[in-house]
TrEMBL record:
Lineage summary: Bacteria, Bacillati, Bacillota, Clostridia, Eubacteriales
Keyword hit for Phosphoprotein: no
ABC transporter domain sequence ranges: 5-255
Keywords: ATP-binding, Cell inner membrane, Cell membrane, Membrane, Nucleotide-binding, Translocase, Transport
BP GO annotations: peptide transport
A GO term from the CC aspect: plasma membrane
Coiled-coil features, chain-numbered ranges: none
Topology in the lipid bilayer: Peripheral membrane protein
Family annotation (NCBIfam families): oligo_HPY
Subcellular location: Cell membrane
SMART domains: AAA
PANTHER family: ATPASE AAA-TYPE CORE DOMAIN-CONTAINING PROTEIN, OLIGOPEPTIDE TRANSPORT ATP-BINDING PROTEIN APPD
Protein's UniProt name: ABC transporter ATP-binding protein
Amino acid sequence: MKEILKVENLTTHFFTDKGVVRAVDGNSFSIYEGKTLGVVGESGCGKSITAMSILNLIEKPGQIVDGSVKFLGEELVGTTDKRIREIRGNEISMIFQEPMTSLNPVFKVGDQIGEALILHRNMSKKEAKNVGIEMLQLVGIPRAEKVIDDYPHQLSGGMRQRVMIAMSLACNPKLLIADEPTTALDVTIQAQILSLMNRLKTETDTAIMMITHDLGVVAQMADHVLVMYSGKIVESAPVNELYGNPKHPYTIGLLKSIPRLDETREELNTIEGTVPSPFELPQGCYFEPRCDKAMEICKHKHPETYKINENHTASCYLYAEEGEE
Ligand code: SF4
Ligand code: MG
């Protein structure tokens, strides 16, 4: 498997008046060609900041304070603005939650898809328009020759998100980062877009980083999953193993809280307690105040990452005897 992105000890802090927020707290992971890495966790756990750190989009008071992000072997942390702009929107593309904010309302769809092609691929306007039409067809937009001349407001939310995907795929990126790409859409459109992304992954071999709070989306999309809690990856596992044999108490709690179609239950099983304030993180394991398996040591020292097997790790003392990563 070809490693497209290798992230090591990525650490992003926000220096605020109230104190330092360790938004991304020393995380390591890789993303491979033709595979989807799912990143799950509740809002505020550092998923989006991880994506923005990879893309060098962190602005003050935030800063990457440690670690490395290698894209096809090239270090992106500390690289020039010029170089990162060449990579962004070309070799690495992104899709965000709200397509209306990411599409420019005053430009036609075709001009927005074509912009990157003209800029990065030296295409003429006409060539770019033709590729644009092809991309719109690829993402299942009917009457693409007409839609290419439409303005974003003339399209439905689902169509706009398809346009965003077409735009992000126009340059044939090696890596696509999708941050809650379907959260704002209704269930039917969501299902269509996810199956479209799955199809494109197999057809184009693009590596995908899929950020979501929705475990159902992850089950459908991901090959491997990272579970984040308070800025840290607490579990990392292949998708089947994560669902079939979850190890970290937080993951177990998350999985219990998804309603299952084959079960009738009076109410959802949610994890008791709330995510700790980023200004007052527990001294030991960040999950300790909510953990029903907590031991004395959990209160005092943050656990290392322990190996469950070759592809599965958990940051939890319950697995300490299985050996450090
Ligand atoms: Fe629970 Fe301790 Fe494991 Fe943290 S390290 S998840 S508190 S058992
Ligand atoms: Mg987010």
